[in-house]
Write a structure and sequence with these properties.
With 182 residues, the chain is an all-alpha fold. It has nine helices and two strands. Belongs to the sigma-70 factor family. ECF subfamily.
Length: 182
């Protein structure tokens, strides 16, 4: 019995993301790993039928969620995790995106940037000030403003990667992270 390549491909693509999602729900690395392995076993049971699953990521999240709920019921540790919350996040596995929950790291990380970088990021990216308005306010050309903003974003990305242990997927989107500063 060989494992279908589509299963291995999907598993390698979503395993880390799924683990950190479970970890964010359980705060228990061992339990998260156990649930992750059980999710893989469920996918393995489908064999080639897994290749026919339309949204494999959503299927993996759905199985992991149900295993998590079962485990929490078994251990009688009812948490704030509820079926309604999960169902409200469409079956496309639109759980709270890691990039959205990353906001908890941002205030501490901004302190590691110089004052100019902090200012341009806060005004343009956080407060939504147009770059043209920022350029005029600081007597800069639009080109200089764009360069400064790009440079500040690169600095921010480096610090976020080191302080919040961010991992990026193949499309350079944040897939998961954990913070030492809780």
């Amino acid at each position: 019995m060989t494992t279908p390549p589509c299963l291995l491909s999907s598993w390698h693509q979503y395993e880390s993301e799924l683990y950190y999602w479970l970890l964010s729900r359980t705060a228990d690395g061992v339990m998260s790993f156990d649930l992750l392995q059980e999710t893989f076993l469920r996918a393995l049971q489908l064999q080639t039928d897994f290749c026919n699953v339309r949204n494999q990521r959503a299927w993996l999240y759905s199985v992991a969620h149900h295993l998590l709920v079962d485990e929490q019921r078994r251990s009688a540790k009812l948490s704030e995790l509820c079926e309604e919350d999960f169902l409200n996040t469409e079956m496309s596995a639109e759980v709270v995106e890691p990039i959205d929950s990353l906001a908890q790291c941002l205030p501490n990380v901004l302190l590691h940037l110089n004052a100019n970088a902090q200012d341009i990021l806060k005004r343009c990216d956080i407060e939504g000030m147009p770059q043209k308005a920022y350029a005029k306010l600081h007597s800069l050309s639009l080109s200089a403003t764009k360069s400064r903003l790009l440079r500040a974003r690169k600095q921010l990305k480096l610090i976020l990667k080191s302080q919040c242990h961010i991992k990026f997927d193949e499309n350079n989107h944040v897939c998961c992270f954990y913070s030492d500063t809780k």
